[in-house]
Amino acid sequence: MSVTLTGCVTVGPDFKQPDVTLENRWLESLAGEAQTAPGAQAAWWTAFNDPVLSALEQRAYERNLSLQVAGLHIFKARAQLAISAENLLPQSGSVSVGADHINTSGVGPIPPTHLWAEHLRVNVGWEIDFWGKYRRQIESDRAQLRVSEAAYDNALVSLFADVANAYIDLRALEQRIAVAQQNLKAVQQSLTLTQARYKRGASSQLDVEQAATLVAETEAQIPPLIKARAQDRDTLAVLLADPPDTVDAQLKGSSAIPVPPTQIDVGIPADLLRRRPDVRQAALNAAAQSALIGAAKAKLYPSLSLTGLFGLSSGEQHGIGLSQWGSKTIGLFSAGITLPILDRGQLKNAVRIQDAAFQEAVLDYQNTVLQAQKEVEDAIAALRTSLDALAASSRASDASQRALKLANVQYRAGSVTYDTVLDASRSMLRDGDSLAQNQGIAALAAVSLYRALGGGWEVAEGQQVVSEQIAEQMAQRTDWGRLLNPPANSALARASGGQLENGK
Prior knowledge:
elongated
């Protein structure tokens, strides 16, 4: 319970960020890890040195529809906070203006009478926030606003990673398709050579059939790769809110698989509390729920309400002669105390519900932190092992190419059977495809690490959360006042990603 400067009290717990278990350092590590500036985590995709990828990320940031929806949630939270803030002012009021005109006909000696009266009445009702019921609700809604901002940042992290994943996978598939097509030409040439040798009696029909089988096997590898590549393109189309043919045009340029950085600053586990938006979101959810405990507890205490009536009336009467009324004013003020008696049991259980929900939010926050640490550890290990696998795959591909050349030379010389050539060809096909796959896997592992570290949302700091077109449409439909672009020092303005504000 806290006491404000106005003499009122605020019941319920003041939020404190829950304790979490954090390691001092990561158990996994990257060989030769570089200590770069933390700011390098912002536009992390630039570390791949791929202009097409950078252009796609920028376009997705500007056009993605799911991100726009997340931005609209911020506007809704701003409006909700503004509603709650109004509760500190008089909560009810009405103004009535009226006029009465009465005509009476004369009866006997009584002449006709004309009465004209005007009135203005103002009613005001105000429940004093003595126990902090409304202030706790404001505190909760303010935290919910920060929750919506963290959710927007988290959507950004996911969006940038999803774009990079789809693009890298597409480039890896293109490389695999190119490798398969090159291998197809090689095995077709081998089939032609085998057929020529068969005609000269230098090889058997079995050699021809085995060579034809290898050609068919290689051809069969290509259609599924083309299909998967089209699916990645369509995924990018959704992320960029563009038609697929437009995406194809944007993909023109270098078709190489982006090369991942081998040195990434992963910081320390404690950085996740500041860097990862989902961790901040979970903490702010707990802060919002903590305030609701106080809002529910305040209903257990007596409430003090003030009501006021102010009236102004004037009129005139025409009858026998002329009688003029002057204006009259009426002022009436009253105070009332409401005691929760019959529903006290219900109100107590309402507090218990909010308390249980708060404890649930605390556990969710702690679990989110643990999950975040796991994801980083897994991503570091995945990147390290994928780089090792890529190096081994590169050596295997080079060796299989040399082996195939030697096998072809020896087969032409008649020193080995075609089985040797067949085995060497299949090894080259397998190792070439494996190399392209491992190049893509290594790049995707780097993306997973950046996602696990929570990188990317920083690029949106200080920027509008919806497109200018959407903001203009909303402003034309509805008077949003300053909620679309609140002043930087306003409680409605976006907070820095690193601030929890203790739930306030």
